[in-house]
Amino acid sequence: MRRKLLFGNWKMNKTREEAKAFAVESVALNKYALAHNIDIGVAPAFLSLCGVKKMNPDLTVAAQNCHFEDHGAFTGEISIPMLLDLGVTWCLVGHSERRTYFAETNETCNKKLLALFANNMTPIYCVGETLAEFEANKTKDVIKEQVLVGLKGLTKENVSKLVIAYEPVWSIGTGKNASTEIAQDICHFIRELVHEQFGEVSEEVRILYGGSVKPENVKAYLSQKDVDGALVGGASLKVDSFKQLIENVVSE
Questions:
Q1: What stretch of H or E contains 63?
Q2: pLDDT tens across 198-208, in order?
């Protein structure tokens, strides 16, 4: 039985003090979630990783990005050893904003996934199509390429620990939601692709949906068979709205 996972991507939001204040408030929130068999976590900006870890050691904390090399002449980048030095063992890979604004490709995502697993870290690998691709009925072609290239060279053991997040680019921060039917269809498609490559371990992979997820719609998404959680943007920035997400998931 796959445990539900609600993960907040804070993007370029919150100062260090604001992040620490959230972390303090989230201590009770994390206990509440775990009591209902839900895992939660947040991906703060790099400068806030240490503060959030310190103020709430039990909260899962992820970096928003990393470089695949351990060190070198890569100005502005953060290495995996640097993250491990902070006690951070999770990392987002391939978010659509990284792909769109910073030229991240399926190939560089693959290098990052391999490097993260080599260091016993847990990646959340983001996939998703643009509005133009969606309207041209190319969604599954795009997703297939992202999954096949991104997961190239991984072992079954790696894949069993992998989290994949399906985020249709056209629904991120736009208020346009993919229907629950679309979310289930694509998350199921992703699981089938993983099964074709790695076999039954695909049943252990947690697949999240992301894209304008909020308290009002989170339960409908997580009620789908192959949707194991959500990667949440704006609704994860405040403890109150994050709590509402959890409460709505566990409500009868």
A1: strand 60-63
A2: 999 999 999 99
